[in-house]
Amino acid sequence: MFKMRYNFPHMETARYSALQLKLERLLDVAALITAERDLDKLLELILKTAVDLTEADAGSIYVREGEKLFFRVALNRTLSRRDKTALTTNFGRSVSIPMDEHSIAGFVAKNRRLLNIPDAYAIPDDRPYRHNRDFDRASNYECRSMLLSPMTDHRGEVAGVIQIINARYRPDKAKWEPFNEEDERLITSLSSLAGTAITRSRLIQELYETYKLVMTRMALAVEQRESDPDTFVHIYRIADYAAAVARRMGLDEDFVRYLKDAAPMHDIGKQCIPDAILFKPGRLTPEEFEVVKKHTIYGSSLFAGMEEPIAKFAYNITRYHHERFDGGGYPDGLKGRDIPLEARIVSVVDVFDALATDRVYKKAMPLERCLAILNEGAGSQFDPEVVAAFMEVLDEILLIREHYERKKREGASC
Ligand SMILES: [Fe+2]
Ligand SMILES: [Fe+2]
User: In terms of CB atoms within 10 Å, which of 80, 178, 344, 368 comes out highest?
Assistant: First the structure.
């Protein structure tokens, strides 16, 4: 990777080399920060980098929403030595402060400037802000030296504030050193990179939510073509079933999220199947069945060529949820693990839900019979590992089913 060369003529060689290493580390991390899409992971990466680069003991990040700053992540090496779980804590959106000059972080965001406080317990009286010692008292930890920087994005908007606490400890003086000019320079560089990355990640998140909403509404529109009120609950229910099975299989949270958000689309291609065939009472002719099979092609064509992970999941689920593990399914006759895992999971939960639910035209099968059908199909129609995971989370599946039954009785929309 390209290495940055800074020229600091008055700096002695050892310090110059240390700074050079830190700048190189910052450049290496820059690529990771720019690539990270998940806001929580991004904030943790920024904070860890800031604390490492300045050799600080602790830090936290506030993210701006409107005129408020939300306390999002914190890291404290001393406290984490006392309690292993305290290394990084995600506070969600639980703690916020107004973006005004009465708090230190608020002052930094409002004035868009770096603030280096040598000792937060000795802030001069003429400053508008005070150090709130509630956290210090609650944790038996003193936040003394502080370095705060606004994280400004590419539009010049403050996306958040980074706060680094307690620079290097001086055992001879039994106190924390203040942050120095070099720390200021490093945090300023990191902050401008971080601000743009935070805004970008939030825009991606908003886009994702909008995308999901539109797709779910489209899937609902398809299900609502049927007069049965249960059909639209079906898409939410199988999303929850699929997520439970995937977690049991040890798949990571990203996989679970994309699977859950894309599963409702599985039959979106039915929008293109004529009513006369889709709602025909009785058996379909072979020709009609060929038309129904095409819902997998129509549905997946909506997502073809799209790069977003959720679109790839939606493509695989719409196209392959009728494939069979033994290769006898449609539309492509894929076999075994050639069928994407997300589709193998949806296949099991979709069939279970169809069997286990009352519909206008049929009664639900008894649970034992539904489970027997899944077990009999393991290895032929279904992936046996998915069926096994399903059986292991059966209690959870039944709770999900009960949850939606209750909602239906209460007449609530999902
Ligand atoms: Fe289908
Ligand atoms: Fe379905």
Answer: 344
**Domains of the chain, earliest start first:** 13-201 (3.30.450.40), 224-410 (1.10.3210.10)
| Shortest-distance ligand to the CA of residue 296 | 1
CA–centroid distance, 351 to ligand 1, in Å, is: 10
Indicate the DSSP class of residue 281: S
Q: Which ligand is nearest to the CA of 322?
A: 1
The confidence score (pLDDT) of residue 144 equals 92
How many whole angstroms from 328 Cα to the centroid of ligand 1? 15
Amino acid at the residue 278 = L
Helix (H) or strand (E) holding 163: strand 158-165
How far, in Å, is the centroid of ligand 1 from the Cα of 267?
5
Looking at residue 308, what is its pLDDT? 83
Q: What does the pLDDT read at residue 11?
A: 62
Report pLDDT for 1. 42
Q: Which ligand number lies closest to the CA of residue 233? A: 2
Whole-number Å distance, alpha carbon 295 to ligand 1 midpoint, is: 7
Nearest residue to 221 via CA among 281, 274, 269, 280 = 269
Task: Find the 305 Cα to ligand 2 centroid distance in Å.
Answer: 24
Tens of pLDDT along 148-163?
999 999 999 999 999 9
Number of the ligand closest to the Cα of 292: 1
Which residues are CB-neighbours of 344 under 8 A, at least 6 positions away? 323, 325, 382, 383, 386
Regions of the chain with pLDDT less than 50: 1-4, 414
Q: pLDDT tens across 76-100, in order?
A: 988 888 876 555 555 555 688 999 9
What does the pLDDT read at residue 3?
47
Query: Rounded to the nearest whole angstrom, what is the distance from the C-alpha of residue 302 to the centroid of ligand 1?
Result: 15
Q: How far is the CA of 152 from the centre of ligand 2 (A)?
A: 46
Residue 179 DSSP class:
P
